[in-house]
Amino acid sequence: MTRHLSGLTFAAPIPRPSYLKLSTPKGSKAAGVRYEKSVVAALKSRFPLLLHGQWFSFADAFGPGICQPDIILRGSQACVVLECKLTDRAEALEQIQLYLPIVTKAFGLPCRGMIIAKNLTRTTPLGVVVGSLTDAFGLLTSQPNTVPILHWLGSGPI
Hints:
Layout: E1 10-14, H1 28-44, E2 51-52, E3 55-60, E4 63-67, E5 71-74, E6 79-87, H2 90-107, E7 111-119, E8 129-130, H3 133-142, E9 149-151
Parallel strand pairs: 6-7, 7-9, 8-9
Antiparallel strand pairs: 1-3, 2-5, 3-4, 5-6
């Protein structure tokens, strides 16, 4: 379950909290981590300043919290928050909806969201699925309230 925000008052990037234990994921979680790393590797050549796994501290009406978006493409005028999923799930959109106001407040830039998924499901909204990063950016531009889902199999150009 993803936390919902109410009355966001503070957000800032922070180093990884020391009290969080490092663990070695297993099974499908490990496959998801490998997929996320392949997305980062594919994007690094086009976006050398991307942020991967940046932690944020924030406060809202529910109290303090922390979060970690998968990838942030930060430009001088805006940012795009990317959520990577091995299989597209509604949880990805919930996470994006949490991260966008936090990253916007922390960086003082407008932010948009994008999901990158290897596998689609019967519940994936096909009207927002695209096959390339160029098409995803086009959808972000033409439909400002849409979160595109980039269907990328994990190899080849993104």
